[in-house]
Amino acid sequence: MANVAEPELTIVLTGFGPFGLHNSNPSEKVVRRIAEEGIEDIQSNARIIVKVMPVAYDDVQDIVSELWEKYHPDLVVHLGVHSVNHAIRIETGSCGIGYYQDDIKSQTPEDYKCPLANSSSNEEGNIICTGLDCMKLVEAVRMEFAEESVQFELSNDPGRYLCAYSYYISLQHDKNCSLFVHIPCFNKSCTLELVTKIVKKIVQSSIQQVLKARKKKSESLYGSGRQQPQTITNCL
After folding, report:
1. Which tens digit of pLDDT belongs to each residue from 35-47?
2. How far apart are CA 183 and CA 27, in angstroms?
């Protein structure tokens, strides 16, 4: 009997272009480096879709939604830069309201909220958490890069700018395969090469979680004749 090839997985990875004091955005450099290297070394049966987005609400709204609709990805990982040196933060969720800060076009979303947010003005009611186990992701990179001068942290506050905005849109599409990672500016001990390796490890660990959850769901469905509900809570 001929070997049946595993179905191809689609992984979307996004970064941001320049804004404010960041004339050269580290997130753009990392996603472009991964696009050049490919991800064969971490996931053999996957294609990588890379997109660098302008720091503008309307563009991000259109681009992220289009990526979901066009590619039906198995995993979406958004990257953005933050100001904490030597720290990589895995964000557990995002909020759909409170976007008062102007983008590079001097614009804000209508009513200062994502169009996908619910009608409630209550912040707690507009928070969505990823279904991925973020603590396990942190543990994976801590173990892999224990000798490096990098801190790995969980965060439940991605801010209220384009980082959080892009994440919220993806969480609305499918929270079980969406993630946001904040990376620092580069320096001598936290280089482009190192951060690229770390992001690849996060992608690898995330897709493993997605595939494991699918297998468990399939076994539950076919083993019992019906699907068993699963609840995953990762917000801090």
Report:
1. 999 999 999 899 9
2. 7
